[in-house]
Design goal:
About 35% of the residues lie in helices and about 15% in strands. By secondary structure, it is α/β, with parallel strands linked by helices. The protein has two domains: about 160 residues, Aspartate Aminotransferase, domain 1; about 240 residues, Aspartate Aminotransferase, domain 2, CATH 3.40.640.
Amino acid sequence: MSEQRAGRGLRGLFGRPQPAPTAAPGGRYGFDYLPADSVHLDSACQTLRPQPVIDAMTEYYLQYNACGERVRYEWGRKVDERVEATREAVLRALDLSPRQHAVSFTLNTTYGLNLLMHQLPPRFARVVTTHTEHNSVFLSTMSHARRAGIERVLLERGPDGELRYDDSDLDDALVVISAMNNVDGAPTPGLTELISRTRKRGGVVIVDAAQALPHAWSQVRELSPDAVCFSAHKVYGASLGVVAATRELLDSLDVTFIGGGQVAGVTASDYELLPEPHTRLEPGLQAWGEIIALGAALDWLQGYRDATGEDLETRETAVASALYDALADLPHLNILSDRGSSLVSVVPERVDGHRLATFLSRAGIMVRSGYFCAHHWLIEQRQLPPVVRFSVGAHNTGGDVEKVQQTMAKLMKGL
């Protein structure tokens, strides 16, 4: 790779110049390593990792594989610098003030949501969510309501996805809601208003942004809830969870999940917590390599437009729209998603969804089948059979869409 300085916007978040990137043939910038005939359409589960992210992980393990926050030798100081740089980069990416917010790293989004809810003070009158949530929210709110002995309110949605609620639902409420649907990719409208109205009535809002990033990054930046939880492995980073929360919320936690890395002092019968609020959610040794890799992923995303000449959200929308059109022309398919959504979920007729996914796999096309951790909504409410989900990412191209169209045409017309 060239060592020449990159253009404006490509200097890494760690302060070092980034190699000047070039777009790979077929539009696979950062994914030159992919076989030409591979069609991966399961980015909603986890995105593929661009080469700079893989390089960052490899560099950590080969060149300075040390513990962070515990050592004074050079390798450890380098880890600390890059982990701190990643925290700062997350706040910049979400447009959150470092004076009011802090970033913690966890195992994944589900783990972060549970860590928060298990340690919140018992001051809420109810927990509020929706019928359409991913299990990360649906199950954790159910568990929280049972444990706290409070009411759990499930909001309905209108025809356009708008939330239906009364202000009384928000009184002293813990509201936990996703910014984008995990099945059809529809963004949740009215979140800014919901956050404002909840706060005025003494409540707290936690947003699950795992699916919304990076497909609707600009929308998430406008929210500023009490906490945002997302997964690095859905934004081209390594497997990792991220919680960006207000310092006030983190300081209010009754820390019961505790260990090394969180305390300033320990006696035979007591301990003193560290003053840094991010430590409230970081017991024990952290995934240093994965955190550093997230920093590389954010660098890569920042430089995407300069390297390719197009915005990633715009490009994904174009590819997803072409994919929608290709599938809409085929018989025996009911499409659940709107055109342009990064997720195109379909209910096939005359064939089980799992079997269709298996047939596609044999043709070199990787898609998800099942209920995508939205069992209550899809099975109990919608009474649907297994669904097939095509989800696009930065590596997908028009050639991928053509292969899907040709393969699906043969499969569906043969039924």
